[in-house]
Write a structure and sequence with these properties.
Blueprint: H1 3-11, H2 18-29, H3 35-48, H4 52-63, E1 79-83, H5 92-101, E2 106-110, H6 120-124, H7 136-146, E3 148-152, H8 159-169, H9 177-190, E4 195-202, H10 211-227, E5 232-238, E6 246-247, H11 249-260, H12 266-282, H13 288-300, H14 303-314, H15 320-323, E7 333-338, E8 343-348, H16 350-360, E9 376-379, E10 386-387, E11 392-398, H17 401-411, E12 415-418, E13 428-433, E14 436-439
Amino acid sequence: MNMYDIITKKKHGGELAADELSYIIDGYVAGEVPDYQVAALLMAICLRGMTIAETTALTKIMAASGDHVDLSAIAGHKIDKHSTGGVGDKTTFIVSPIVAACGCKAPKMSGRGLGHTGGTIDKLESIPGFRTNLSQDEFITVVKECGLSLIAQTGTLARADKLLYALRDVTATVDSIPLIASSIMSKKLASGADAVLLDVKVGRGAFMKTLEEARELAETMVAIGKTANFPTAALLTNMDAPLGNAVGNSLEVAEAVSVLRGAGPDDLRTVSLALAAGMLQLAGQGAFEECHARAENAIRSGAAFEALLRMTAAQGGDTAVLHDTANFPQARMQRTITADADGYLTRLDAEAVGRTAVLLGAGRMTKDSTINHAAGIILHKKYRDAITAGAPLATLYAESEEQIAAGAERFRAAFEIGAAAPAPMKLIYGAVDAEGWHER
C-alpha cells in the first residue's frame, strides 16, 4: 500500500477502503506520510467526493486518533449539541441548562471564535473567574452535580482532525462536505456523549450559504451517526441575519440570561426552544411537541436559570453577573448608529455584523489577538422592522475610538433600508433525522 496509488485511485473516483484510510491518517499523525501527499488526496476528495461508507470510516479513524472522553460514570442520557457557527449564536447557554433542568445530562466541549463567528469558550470566559479548562475528572464531577458542564475542547481530542483542518485551511479544501462532516462528527464520537443534535446554520453569516448545501451536510452527518450507531439529528436554522440582538461575548451571555429568565428576543427564544426540544427528543423524553413543552416549563419555573447558576459556581464563575448582568465589566467607548431614512430594514447581513464585532475587539483579527469581552454590538432594529430617520439602529461597544470608528464604517455596509417591508424570514427550515428530511 502506498500514497501514490491511493491518490490515483481517488483521483479517478474510486472508493477508498477503511484500511487505506487508516494507512493515510495513522501515517500522517505519526509523521510518516508527508503533507504534500495528504494535500493532493484532500483535493482529490474535494473534486470526487466520498461515499457515506468512506466518510464514516474516515470519521471513526479520526475519532480514534486522539483521546476518547469516557463519560460512563455519569448516569442518565448524555446529550451533546453542536452548531456549525453563526453570529449572535448564544443558544448553548440557553439550551444546555434547559436540558439539565429536564433531567438529562448536557456535557459539552466547545471552541473559540473563528473568523466572523463567535465562540462559546470566549463567551464563557467573559464571566469573571469561570474556568473552561477542567480535567476530565472535574468535568465529570460538574456534570454529575449540575447536570451540565461547558468546557474547552482539549487539543488531544481527534488529533488527526486538527492536523487535517490546518492543511485544508491552506489548500482550499475546507468546503468539501465529506471533509466537513467527518471533521465535526469525529470530535462528537470522541466526546463520549450518547447522542448529538446538530444546529446547521444556513445563510450569509454561515459557512453553508444555501439550504441545499446545508441539507446535504446535515444528511451526511446524520448518516454517519446512523452507520456508527451514534444517534444524530439536525435542525437547519437561519443565519442570514444575526440571532438575537446582542453580538459580542458578555453581551451575548447577558442576552442568554434574559431568555432563561423569561424575556429576551423572540427569534433567539424560538430557536433555543426548538434545539432543546430536539435534544430531549433524542434522549427519549417524548415527541417533539411534548419535549418543546418541557423546555418551556424549564424556563417558566426558573429551573433552567438555576442550572446555569449551579454550573457557573461549580466552575469558579462569579454568579453576581448572572443575577444582575449590569455587573459585567463595561466597554470604555460606545457609539450609536442611526438611520438616515424612513422605511423598513430590508437587509441586516449577519457576516457583515460579525466582521464589525471583530473590528470592535469582540473577535480575533489573528490567532494571537486578545479578546475584549465587553466589546460588541446591541441591535436596536432587526430585519423587517419599520425605521424612521434618526432612529437608533445599533450601539457599538469597544475599548478605543479607533475601533469604534472602524466598526461604524463597517457596520454601514451591513444593512439596507427600503421603502417596502421585505418578505418574512423563516427561522427554522427543517430537521433531518434517521428517517430523513422533515420540513418545518
